[in-house]
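Colleagues,

For the teaching module next term, I've prepared a clean inverse folding example: a structure given as tokens, and then the sequence designed for it. I'd like students to try predicting residues themselves before seeing the answer, so please don't circulate the second half yet.
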């Protein structure tokens, strides 16, 4: 069996290693440059590869192709594979049959990283032998090749879900759905929503789907489509006999006739959206039969995720917050919503078809100045130019932070929450977040 891997990054190299171990003839092809560290791994494992090109005769003879999530379906080589009827699948689909471990799959437009990390923290603190993978950390396929875990918590993007055929998580979570990556879905929101719901398409009556019952896109989909999984909703406003909710400043989770309660103020994560993440993760912990005391302790000591509403420093009584992971409007909505003081907002980057109107009320209420950090800021300036007193354009992070420092007074907050992708000025959102933190430390 010939396995061709498109993309020589973390998921590609992990898939190649697993494929080799399982007796496939493996070839890795990357149209860009493969990092030296990954090349070394491929060489040491005797895996053939090429970079900065796709040689068709070495690709179109595949029995199966694993496509890295970053490669769009519209790429010519992918189109040719599809025309030839060669299955093009994701790393998750390829690796899942080679492990007996239970998987918990987590998707959503926002909150999936925090929910994934918190779920992992809960299970690990309870002493479960659990791995973390998917869109985060070490490649799932690579971990399956070493095969040491009984369960995995997987963060799954819509692109990874697009490439599944038979994969099913035992427990699935959809944190929320809002327009994102529409450039990859023919600018049709419903295509993107369907893509997220692929997480439950193979689930059976013995599996679970945990979802945000306050989310319009999710509840509408569930009204008109069927899943066989047992439904476990969570909500900030409704209550359930089976599900998770907030009542009288307490989080309540009721699953399989068992109840769990915890005061919201004792949960380490702050903000309404984080209460949702906590409800989703706690629902998993209850399904995995983790002791209440362990859940309580884990929820009260969880440190949060880097680049997601991360408190950097307080300088002259001004708080600097790194929310570089906010690459869409919905994520920035949560960030602005959780601000409790006048805010200088650093925003901008590569726009994925954003509608800034959703932020209008929050900007009027909370934002005193906007710093545009992007190559093209026209849409942001058009949207908010008349709404805030001060609007500045900069083209590097140190200028953004120095300008923010000038515009603040005691008690204010500086929030980096770009609502956009980072590729115009930075390598990725992590690079953007680290540059922000460095610039703040250099003030």
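(Answer key — instructors only)
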């Amino acid at each position: 069996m010939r396995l061709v891997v498109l993309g020589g990054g973390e998921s590609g190299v992990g898939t190649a290693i697993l494929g080799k171990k399982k007796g496939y003839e493996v070839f890795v092809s990357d149209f860009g440059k493969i990092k030296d560290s990954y090349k070394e791994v491929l060489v040491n494992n005797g895996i053939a590869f090429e970079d900065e090109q796709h040689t068709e005769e070495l690709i179109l003879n595949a029995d199966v192709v694993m496509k890295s999530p970053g490669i769009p379906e519209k790429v010519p080589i992918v189109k040719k594979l599809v025309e030839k009827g060669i299955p093009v699948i994701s790393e998750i689909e390829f690796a899942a049959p080679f492990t007996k471990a239970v998987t918990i799959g987590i998707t959503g437009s926002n909150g999936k990283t925090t929910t994934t990390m918190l779920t992992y923290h809960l299970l690990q603190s309870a002493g479960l032998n659990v791995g973390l993978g998917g869109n985060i950390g070490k490649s799932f396929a690579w971990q399956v090749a070493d095969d040491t875990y009984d369960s995995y918590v997987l963060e799954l993007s819509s692109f990874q879900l697009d490439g599944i055929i038979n994969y099913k998580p035992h427990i699935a979570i959809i944190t929320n759905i809002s327009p994102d990556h529409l450039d990859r879905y023919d600018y049709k929101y419903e295509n993107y929503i369907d893509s997220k719901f692929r997480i439950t398409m193979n689930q059976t009556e013995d599996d679970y789907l945990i979802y945000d019952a306050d989310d319009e896109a999710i509840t509408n989909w569930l009204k008109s489509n069927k899943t066989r999984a047992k439904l476990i909703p969570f909500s900030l406003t409704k209550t359930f006999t089976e599900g998770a909710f907030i009542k009288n400043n307490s989080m309540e989770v009721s699953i399989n006739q068992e109840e769990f309660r915890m005061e919201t103020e004792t949960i380490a994560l702050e903000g309404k959206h984080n209460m949702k993440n906590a409800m989703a993760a706690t629902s998993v912990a209850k399904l995995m039969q983790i002791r209440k005391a362990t859940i309580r302790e884990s929820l009260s000591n969880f440190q949060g995720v880097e680049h997601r509403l991360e408190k950097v420093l307080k300088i002259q009584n001004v708080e600097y917050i790194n929310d570089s992971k906010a690459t869409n409007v919905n994520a920035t909505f949560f960030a602005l919503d959780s601000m409790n003081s006048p805010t200088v907002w650093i925003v901008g980057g590569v726009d994925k078809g954003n509608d800034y109107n959703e932020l209008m009320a929050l900007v009027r209420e909370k934002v005193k100045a906007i710093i545009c950090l992007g190559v093209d800021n026209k849409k942001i300036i058009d949207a908010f130019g008349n709404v805030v007193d001060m609007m500045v354009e900069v083209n590097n992070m140190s200028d953004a932070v120095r300008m923010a420092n000038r515009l603040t007074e005691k008690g204010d907050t500086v929030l980096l929450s770009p609502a956009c992708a980072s590729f115009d000025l930075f390598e990725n959102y992590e690079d953007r977040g680290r540059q922000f933190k460095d610039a703040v430390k250099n003030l």
